[in-house]
Amino acid sequence: MCEIKDFESHTNAYGNQKSDECLIEIAQVINNCAKRAIDLVARYREHQFAVILPNTGDEGAFCVAELIRTEFEKLKIANLSLNLAIANMIPRNNLDAKALIAAAENR
């Protein structure tokens, strides 16, 4: 899970158009870091993106999160930071996507 912190302040300072451009730029960075064809990046909430990395353990997910953090910092966007959370689930028949999202949000 990737959450852009203080985005409302950014919108208030720079306006909706600049904030939308900034959001697109951040989304592109996140998407470029999820490199495999099976990886999925989706906007989850207004300032959050879910990054789904199938068949990836904690170590692999941490590497992707670190790459996202590094690439985000290269953008040098004033007054914005990115919170990253990792959650991992072993697939089973009763796999619950809500439980995975809750685990990521509570980290």
TrEMBL record:
Q: Which InterPro entries match?
A: GGDEF_dom, Nucleotide_cyclase, Rev_trsase/Diguanyl_cyclase
Name the source's superkingdom.
Answer: Bacteria
* SUPFAM superfamilies listed in its UniProt record: Nucleotide cyclase
Domain GGDEF: from-to ranges: 1-107
Which Pfam family would be a valid example here?
GGDEF
This chain's protein is named GGDEF domain protein
Q: Give the organism the record lists.
A: Calothrix parasitica NIES-267
